[in-house]
Amino acid sequence: MHSHTEQNTIDHKTQLKIERLEYLLNFSENLVLIEDINSLLDQLLYDARSECMAEAGSIYLLEDGALRFSYVQNDLLARTKYDNRQYLYADHTVAIDEKSIAGYTASTGETLNIKDVYNIPATESYCFNPIFDQETGYRTRSIISAPLRKEGGELIGVIQLINPSDKLSFSEDDKNYIYHIGRIASSAIQRAQAGNATFMRMLKMAELRDPKETGAHVNRVGAYSIEIYDAWAKNRGIEEQEIRAFKEPLHIAAMLHDIGKVAISDLILKKPAKLTDEEFDIMRGHTSSGASLFNDSDIKLDRMSYETTLYHHECWNGTGYPHQLKGEEIPLHARIVAVADVYDALISVRAYKDSWSEDKVLSYMQEQSGKHFDPELIDIFISIQEIIRGIRHRYRET
Ligand code: C2E
Ligand code: SIN
Ligand code: SIN
Ligand code: FE
Ligand code: FE
């Protein structure tokens, strides 16, 4: 185990930066911000990259004894035809041994500052895996790789920054900064994992009630929704900061969209055939039952969950339920979840239907553009199919 002497060499300026970040993560006025792990990783990586002027970065989290590639940001690729967001859902794990850069960081606890990954001295046990570069045409040069550990030292993952944009390789200051960020971030990730528990229990309850409405389905609708929003917002030139603030609650609200189904009787909920008109009337009640869980709250996440549960079956042309809202009267998040939900319902097997082919689903969605769905969102949805498939694969039924 290496000692972390870098702790002693931190300069005043770096110390101030660290304190600022610590303050940000601990006293964020909107605690919702740190309830969502993905959002937390997104914010963390963004801050770390801004501070060190890093073009790219990624986070691996410990899962089943290996490192799962859990988050990536890459500004350069984001501007090319290789939209790196599909890598966000890449099913990619790294063993915890001394052969890879991330694995070495995890197994030794050492923070590495590598000047050029293509010229690592042969005396080192680790080498660089060029597969990402080969697939994308990106050229990785310099990497900082730091462990994410809990208070007691227990490993939870690895954070990496790639290619400083203002110099050839990262400085020792950058390395120290990332080392400290790793310590602070680990406790925030821990808190986020705990904060998730309540909402995870709500979803688990729905799954116990109806095992067909699986966690995988809920995860897919959540992930499709944030990706649709992300593409929509970028098209419209919405500020990064606003995009991140919206995505966080949207992810959770989208996952909760059908929570009101817990109030529907088994006879209807699990009927392996078409519903009668009367039964469908009752089924429509899952929108307002769900919304009643989030009534009377000023919290942004609750408001968004309220509107998403209530309005996710409204149609762009005003023929949906329960209130026949029309066009932009329907909140954006509910319009987004409508696209994500119907897509997933059609492409999956349900108690009452077989799965449809991707072609059939996509032509149906396009045919319903301007009828059931916001046409702008359908265009966006069609344009991000590569990412959508990645999500389907990442959260496939097991
Ligand atoms: P869900 O299974 O999550 O389906 C969500 C939405 O996907 C549906 O909302 C509908 O807009 C679309 N969808 C699903 N299957 C089909 C299909 O075969 N053809 C077409 N054109 N669209 C489809 P909807 O219709 O408001 O239904 C809401 C919920 O009611 C459904 O959620 C499901 O839980 C239940 N449901 C709807 N129809 C039936 C049925 O015939 N039998 C049973 N057992 N449940 C049904
Ligand atoms: C997760 O983000 O991994 C869990 C779901 C959520 O908090 O949105
Ligand atoms: C929003 O609803 O938040 C943005 C405006 C729109 O609906 O297009
Ligand atoms: Fe629904
Ligand atoms: Fe649904």
Explain this structure to me?
By secondary structure, the chain is α+β, with helices and mostly antiparallel strands. The chain folds into two domains: 4-193, GAF domain (Beta-Lactamase), CATH 3.30.450; 210-394, Hypothetical protein af1432. Helix content is 51%, strand content 11%. The protein has 17 helices and six strands. It has helices at 12-26, 37-52, 75-78, 85-88, 101-108, 131-136, 172-209, 215-235, 240-255, 266-269, 277-284, 286-292, 300-311, 332-347, 358-367, 375-383, 385-394, and strands spanning 54-63, 66-74, 93-95, 112-114, 143-149, 155-164. Strands 3-2-1-6-5-4 form a six-stranded antiparallel β-sheet, sandwiched between helices. A hairpin with a 5-residue loop joins β5 (143-149) and β6. The model is unreliable at 1-6 and 27-34 (pLDDT under 50). One fe (iii) ion binds at residues 257-258, 286, 312-313.
Short note summarizing the structure:
This protein is of the alpha+beta class and 398 residues long. The chain has 17 helices and 6 strands.
Outline the fold blueprint.
Elements: H1 12-26, H2 37-52, E1 54-63, E2 66-74, H3 75-78, H4 85-88, E3 93-95, H5 101-108, E4 112-114, H6 131-136, E5 143-149, E6 155-164, H7 172-209, H8 215-235, H9 240-255, H10 266-269, H11 277-284, H12 286-292, H13 300-311, H14 332-347, H15 358-367, H16 375-383, H17 385-394
Antiparallel strand pairs: 1-2, 1-6, 2-3, 4-5, 5-6
One fe (iii) ion is lined by residues 257-258, 286, 312-313.
